[in-house]
TrEMBL record:
It comes from Hypoxylon rubiginosum. It comes from the Eukaryota. This is Uncharacterized protein.
Length: 250
């Protein structure tokens, strides 16, 4: 796998080559532009952050803080990849069109043993005031987190152990959707998984499941996220891709 994946697009980016690269703190503004415009299209976003339109300042503040920690090298269990224009050497600016967050805990488990525990930035966000944010429904956030952990244990850990590259977040800015950018970020992870001899795992929204199915991900079932006693719920689909099942990445 060569360093940067490039593709040509006939977009408002004046047909500039776009590249998949590791995000830095200089990309934070561009990442937020993607996240705050793309992620609300996913029903799970409104489920967890139903008051975001009333309190947009809290949504921006704590999502920005979350990604600051994700990008911080001290949170080495996560890797943020962006797809956009190369940086301008003078201004250090880049147009970011799509974002992916990968859980790469398998690297530290290989180094430190299977009992190594992932260092997750959610705790740091809470310590910085996240427990009092006004845009969120905390019961829904807890249900989402618990359902995700249970699904990972049921569908992925028994099959792959810790040898899995988990796709945590994937989003493409609405202005650049349906142009293969999400697929490019996924294929980066699929190539990484092949190189590191691991599987790719994820929990897909119904909207995202179509993309992953087109990339030969296996649909393993259905996970319903719901607080006991409530009618409101969201559905997630655990999906995986094991490079060992294919001769090449699609």
């Amino acid at each position: 796998m060569a360093g940067l994946l490039s593709l040509n697009t006939s977009t408002s980016l004046t047909s500039a080559a776009m590249v998949v690269r590791k995000a830095t703190c200089d990309d934070l503004e561009g990442i937020m532009n993607v996240v705050l415009n793309a992620m609300p299209q996913d029903p799970a976003w409104d489920y967890r952050f139903p008051h975001r339109k009333e309190y947009p300042e809290d949504e921006r503040k704590f999502q920005t803080l979350f990604f600051e920690f994700l990008i911080d090298p001290s949170y080495e269990d996560f890797e943020v990849r962006v797809l956009g224009t190369p940086r301008d050497d003078d201004a250090g600016k880049s147009i970011i069109a799509a974002v992916a967050v990968w859980d790469v805990t398998y690297l530290n488990k290989r180094r430190n043993g299977p009992d190594y525990v992932t260092k997750h930035p959610a705790g740091a966000v809470n310590d910085a005031g996240g427990t009092s944010r006004l845009d969120a429904n905390f019961a829904h956030m807890r249900a989402f987190r618990e359902a995700g952990a249970a699904a990972k244990k049921k569908y992925f850990d028994g099959r792959f152990g810790f040898q899995q590259l988990h796709l945590q977040i994937l989003g493409t800015h609405p202005d650049y959707q349906r142009r293969g950018l999400g697929s490019a970020l996924c294929k980066w992870g699929m190539e990484r998984a092949k190189k590191d001899d691991v599987a790719v795992s994820l929990l897909a929204s119904p909207m995202g499941a179509k993309l992953y199915s087109s990339l030969m991900f296996e649909d393993l079932g259905e996970v319903i996220v719901q607080v006991l006693g409530e009618n409101e719920s969201v559905v997630l689909r655990p999906m995986s891709y094991n490079p060992k099942d294919y001769t090449s990445v699609v």
